[in-house]
Design goal:
The protein has 170 residues and is mainly beta. The protein has a single domain, classed as Immunoglobulin-like. Helix content is 9%, strand content 33%. Strands 1, 2, 3, 5, 7, 8, 9 and 10 form an 8-stranded antiparallel sheet that branches. The chain has a two-stranded antiparallel ribbon with strand order 4-6. The termini are far apart. The structure holds copper (II) ion and zinc ion. The site of copper (II) ion (CU) has 7 residues, from strand 5 and strand 8.
Length: 170
């Protein structure tokens, strides 16, 4: 009994040590179907995003935080450009970048599933221009194609195929 409790404590501890999600987003496709979910947690100097894709086309997809918390199907243009409070250029590999909302590609397997965790440096869940809850909010967007990580303003990642407004976790 004592031994199994100890094993349980070891198994549970890494989860308990992680920050509780401070925000979440449900990403829907143009048909209104939820195809991925994301959670956001405050970490030192930024916000960690974990996305779990359940139903996306296989391959790498551009994946960003966009500057407006509005997801109007079918093109999701309502989400605006990339979240960019520090007026940088697009791309994790751009010397003049990146946008605060830029992240590595989301890689989806042949089964339509994929998981990724990335850190948004210099972003907060609190208040101010660098907050995901700045006036008007923000949205998480998945694109049809891979982001080349350097072409301004959006890495040639093509159409917006899924969008989710970033909301406070309850
Ligand atoms: Cu985008
Ligand atoms: Zn960008």
């Amino acid at each position: 009994m004592v031994r199994s409790l100890a094993a349980l404590a070891v198994a549970v501890l890494p989860l308990a040590a992680r920050a509780a999600p401070g925000a979440r987003a449900d990403l829907k496709n143009a048909g209104g179907e939820t195809v991925a979910t994301a959670t956001f947690a405050a970490v030192p100097d930024g916000v960690e995003v974990t996305v779990v894709a359940a139903k996306l086309s296989p391959g790498p997809h551009g994946f960003h935080v966009h500057a407006v918390g509005k997801c109007e199907a079918p093109d999701f243009k309502s989400a605006g450009g990339h979240f960019n409070p520090r007026d940088r250029k697009h791309g994790l590999e751009n010397a003049a970048g990146p946008h605060a909302g830029d992240m590595p590609n989301l890689v989806v397997g042949a089964d339509g599933k994929g998981t990724a965790t990335s850190k948004l440096g210099g972003v907060t869940l609190d208040s101010g221009p660098a907050s995901l809850f700045h006036e008007g909010g923000t949205a998480l967007v998945v694109h049809a194609d891979a982001d080349d990580m350097k072409t301004d303003p959006s890495g040639n990642s093509g159409a917006r195929v899924a969008c989710g407004v970033v909301e406070r976790a309850k």
